[in-house]
Design brief:
Length: about 290
Amino acid sequence: MFLRFSNKPLSGRILAAAFFCALTLGVALSFAFHDTSSNATTASISAVKKPAWLPRMMVTEYYPARESWFAGERIKTPGISGRKSKIDWLYSAVGMSMEGDGLGTDGNRYHIDNLGRGGWIGRDGKAANWGSSNKNRTPFWRSSGYWRNQKKQVTFPLEDGTWYRGVGKRWIPEKGITFGRGPSRPLRYYRSVAVDPDFIPMKSLVWVGRYRSINGDGWFRADDVGGAIDGRHIDVYRKPPKVIGDAGSYGNQRLYVVPKAKIASYIRREKKEDTDGLPLPPASLY
């Protein structure tokens, strides 16, 4: 199920309802996102030390969050003088605080510079439960930088002057959270992947057959990490879609990994004789 916005003007409350649906979808995929405060764990796994096929891999996608998806009122952006940003883009569980990077309505890239103190809360204003099936308990907002309504639930002001879930009665200031201009890392769309560095060493080459028709050869480089990227799971960095939540998720994939320390010898060998049936990685990746 994908959320689509029409070109007709929508009221703040309708946009907020759309945001609520999108967030439900987004949090369902939140283990692929890039907040390093996740409490996800994985069984002990050995690092890949030589070129090898890896079966039973999970492949998900991530991208900069578009500010245009959000309906919140604009507020001062900690760390960026003179910029006002939509509050839900800054602090919600499908905004920059979770994704790490964002694309502003001005066409410029931004990123979260410091996560500050604290973790995540649910819609009910209590500490979030990452594994819960209760939508009020899953991560919804950072534990600071939000308003509480009369019932102490999370709410926030909308662009049209209304409120997401009742009028805010108390503002909980952000605790050290700051943002910056530009991307957080020099990542490349459909060339960079996030990995668990204890399993796939950073700067390793990763071949994902499903993406061969997209980037021309299927090769990526391990350029990023994420607190929710554990073990047999990689996250493909892609262009932000026009539709929030429109990201792929593919289980039971068979990938090929060339650890950074073995790239030079692998390239020499494959130039002499094709031993794995794969195209040569582009030189721009090593």
